[in-house]
Design goal:
The chain has 17 helices and seven strands. The protein is α/β, with parallel strands linked by helices. It has a five-stranded parallel sheet, sandwiched between helices. A two-stranded parallel ribbon has the order 6-7.
């Protein structure tokens, strides 16, 4: 049975859990919150023992059989989390899961974490068997036109009343990055505000520090290595959320990639400044960068930024600030064939 993620809280208030929950999609923030909500409910209902399997190449699937059919040593209910984002069940595992679906244990709760569900998964015996007895919660990205409503809903949960201008400004700034939007709303709630206006949003995004996240992007694309690292260190010391730093960087490079592509297609700088509403004081800075970096350079930076995003969200282990430093160092290496001035 399909269950939209926004109906999960209501479903969980019934005090009865399905034997299986399959959570699919690639929107990490929403998936993490869905998983956490189910975990908390499961623990409250007596599933105090939690086991997680993240199969890799060469994984012994007999471990799964042992988990499903061997009682806990402490006779506790178990919440068994199966992370199938990287490795799907093989033939042996598919048989184990399909068989289990015919007689699920009341002492086990299965949480299955999947990426996007494609036609191949839809035809798998294990998936079809578990879908019949469980809940399928697909997580879809929030569309741009739906983002203001999502921001408003999240703000209300934090007892914040946002003006329309504030919501639209935050939606424009985060450009679909739900983690950045959530971090901004969290900061607003900590300020003790009741009503949030456009100026409050600007304050949260730029902070009250001597340097702002926009100072960082300017020094980064100016190839001022010394100042870039100084600003980055200052932002870290003043407690700026890494997700906001990364958001500012990725937002800048998406625009730069679009500009670089337009230049390759024969556009000119005046047209770019007008289209992207670039202030006169920033035009020389962006022009200098675009003369020495290609569209491919910009997309490589965005791919690297996505890897840092995985570190922030705990998908990959590592030091976020160290990764940001390495990222900034790499940006200062221009391409070998600059555009003519």
């Amino acid at each position: 049975m399909k269950l939209p993620h926004y109906q999960l809280e209501q479903h969980l208030t019934t005090g009865k859990l399905a034997p299986v929950y399959i959570i699919s999609g690639e929107e990490l923030l929403l998936k993490q919150e869905v998983l956490q909500l189910i975990r908390k409910t499961a623990q409250r209902l007596g599933f105090t023992d939690r086991v997680r399997l993240a199969p890799e190449a060469g994984f012994n699937w007999e471990q799964l059989y042992t988990l499903l059919y061997s009682p806990s040593m402490l006779a506790e209910k178990q919440c068994i989390e199966l992370d199938f984002r990287e490795q799907l069940p093989n033939k042996t595992a598919s048989s184990i899961l399909a068989e289990y679906a015919t007689n699920p244990s009341p002492h086990h709760l299965l949480l299955i974490n999947l990426g996007k569900i494609d036609n191949k998964i839809h035809k798998c015996a294990w998936y079809l068997a578990l879908e019949k007895i469980g809940m399928l919660i697909p997580i879809w990205p929030i569309a741009r036109k739906q983002l203001p409503a999502w921001i408003n809903q999240r703000a209300r949960k934090q007892q914040l009343q946002c003006t329309a201008e504030a919501v639209n400004l935050l939606a424009e700034y985060v450009e679909g990055n739900l983690s950045a939007a959530a971090a901004a709303i969290e900061k607003l709630s900590l300020l003790g505000l009741k009503t949030v206006n456009k100026e409050d949003i600007k304050q949260v995004l730029t902070d009250e520090s001597h340097f702002t996240i926009f100072d960082l992007t300017d020094s980064l694309i100016a190839s001022d290595k010394s100042r870039t690292f100084h600003v980055l260190q200052q932002l870290q010391e003043e407690g700026i959320e890494p997700i906001l730093v990364l958001w500012a960087i990725t937002r800048e490079f998406r625009v730069l990639a679009e500009m670089a592509h337009a230049l390759q297609q024969g556009s000119n700088y005046d047209a770019l400044w007008k289209k992207h509403r670039v202030f006169a004081q920033r035009q020389p800075l962006l022009r200098q960068f675009l003369n020495t970096h290609s569209m491919q350079d910009c997309w490589q930076a965005l791919v690297r930024a996505m890897q840092i995003d995985h570190v922030i969200k705990g998908v990959v282990t590592g030091s976020v600030w160290q990764e940001l430093e390495i990222f900034c160092l790499g940006i200062h290496t221009p391409r070998t064939n600059p555009l003519p001035q």
